[in-house]
Design a protein that fits this description.
The complex is a heterodimer of chains A (333) and B (81). In chain A, 76% of the residues lie in helices and 0% in strands. By secondary structure, chain A is mainly alpha-helical. The longest helix of chain A has 35 residues. Chain B has a single domain, classed as Glutaredoxin (3-Layer(aba) Sandwich).
């Protein structure tokens, strides 16, 4: 069982065989892969192919699942739950509902006018970018199954706690007037056939690939530089176990940045290989994917500054907490 | 005459849906007014939470995706336009 799992993790998700194959090919054309340049080239080719392959399979599979949970339907499901149960369901739905920050305002209005409590909406808004099915599989391929599962669980816990906190602080007055005033109706969800879903998934995959590919190249490029040119001692000093502020440093750097998880991955992978602590890396990844300037600017149109600050504060504290948790637990992973 | 509305937040996808819709209307020779609704309050009033959406004669035909011209043709026929 253990052997089968290791094989799945290293060879299928991690594609180690591909790395070896590229190494052999490069050596065959006369490039010394133990040299810095050769190593960088090997890392670059291997990582671009690996991430693109993972992206295509993942987005396709995830989109099939997501086609069952358009926001319009998630809203109806959420209406059936009360109290903290609603927060939990919102956090879970946040992981499977397709959502981009450009739709955050209509989504906000839809949830609010359906009578969903503000805290439930925020549980959704926190979990949606922080945890998704994609990050679960991607983390599994690099850091292993245990790390991925704990990452997802802690993300969900942050979303539930964050939403509940916003609820308890009664921030309703900090939602913009036009959102509270808007009225919305339920619309019928499209009845999709299996063929429609596959078509939708295929289109999503193509669109995501086009959008994300430049980020992947940049991310892998940075990863290759870290991998072969930056001295290990620098990374260990900044992000290693002896720096108690490594998590905070990683979070502060990661929050204003905006990149897709697929672009962040190679950077995280290279940092990990160079001795950075797990918690610092995960905090960096969470910071990059969860909070970004464009999404904050969008959200600012829906809520007033105080609530936005609270949202950013909760997410940031949550990310830092996750970082320290993983650093403390690193020995079991 | 048909009233066609594109509901969108002004993102790239929304402009693309508008362009596709206009092309189809011109191709089929349908006489219609096309509006691009960017007011979030009004978008929500249609029950739409994922943009862009296509509204014809005040009825939501599709939302949350950029329709291909062929899909728009089918939806318009189904709506009897």
């Amino acid at each position: 069982m253990q052997i089968a799992w290791d094989f799945f993790q290293n060879q299928i998700l991690g594609m180690r065989w591909l790395n070896a194959l590229i190494g052999n090919l490069l050596a065959a054309v006369g490039l010394d892969i133990s040299s810095r340049l050769g190593g960088s080239v090997q890392f670059f080719i291997y990582d671009v192919i690996k991430i693109v392959a993972l992206l295509c399979v993942l987005i396709f599979g995830i989109s099939c699942i997501q086609s069952y949970f358009p926001p319009e339907r998630s809203k109806k499901i959420l209406g059936r739950f009360r109290g903290i149960g609603a927060n939990c369901v919102a956090a879970l739905l946040g992981t499977v509902t397709p959502f981009c920050s450009c739709s955050s305002i209509p989504l906000f209005i839809g949830f609010t006018s359906a009578g969903l409590p503000l805290g439930v909406t925020f549980s959704f808004l926190i979990s949606s970018p922080m945890v998704d099915l994609g990050s679960l599989v991607l983390l599994m391929s690099i850091f292993g199954g245990k790390v991925a599962v704990v990452y997802v669980l802690t993300g969900l816990v942050i979303a539930v706690i964050g939403g509940t906190l916003i609820e308890k602080l009664h921030m309703e007055n900090y939602v913009e007037e036009f959102i509270r005033a808007a009225s919305a109706v339920d619309i019928e969800a499209d009845d999709l056939t299996r063929r429609d879903r596959l078509k939708y998934a295929w289109e999503q995959m193509a669109a995501t690939f086009k959008k994300v590919f430049p980020y992947i190249l940049i991310g892998v490029g940075i990863g290759a530089i870290i991998h072969n040119w930056i001295p290990e001692s620098w990374i260990v000093t900044a992000l290693g176990g002896n720096n108690p502020f490594s998590v905070i440093l990683a979070t502060v750097v990661g929050v204003p940045m905006y990149a897709d998880i697929f672009g962040t991955l190679p950077v995280a992978e290279a940092l990990y290989a160079k001795g950075a602590q797990l918690g610092a890396i995960l905090a960096f990844m969470m910071g990059v994917t969860t909070l970004s300037l464009p999404s904050m600017i969008m959200l600012r149109k829906a809520v007033k500054t105080r609530l936005l600050e609270l949202f950013i504060g909760i997410c940031t504290m949550g990310i830092i907490a996750v970082g320290y948790l993983f650093n403390a637990l690193q020995f079991i992973f | 005459m048909a009233t066609v509305k594109i509901l969108g937040s002004g993102c790239k996808k929304c402009d693309q849906l508008e362009a596709n819709t206009k092309a189809v209307l011109a191709q089929l020779g349908i006489d219609a007014t096309v509006e691009h609704e960017r007011d979030f309050g009004k978008i929500a009033a249609y029950g739409v939470m994922s943009t862009p959406a296509l509204v014809v004669n005040e009825k939501v035909l599709a939302y949350g995706k950029v329709l291909k011209p062929a899909d728009i043709v089918k939806l318009l026929q189904k709506a009897g336009v």
